[in-house]
Amino acid sequence: MDIEINTVGEIQVITLTGEIDANTAPQVQQKVLPLAIPESKILLNLTQVSYMSSAGLRMLLSLYRQTNNKASSLVLVGLADEIRRTMAITGFLNFFTTCDTLESGLQVLR
User: Which residues sit opposite 17 in a β-bridge?
Assistant: First the structure.
């Protein structure tokens, strides 16, 4: 799992590359959750994530709770079709703002 964190204006852009599973989800959570400070803007770029296990979904839910509790904004970008279907079936998709492209995700957060 490769985790790249950049700042675009006031938006934290986190680009994940690889698979998010029981082995990598704790690493992602450790790097990403501290960014969920009050009124933060976080864009999670998942265009290079091909697989997400239930551990990855739990990590997303934790991130959602952190940002929601701190009046922060969170946008998920580039969900693979399989991940989007899984999130839709489990009801997780209802919690998140999603965009297809990085630019559209940045626009939503601006």
Answer: 2, 48
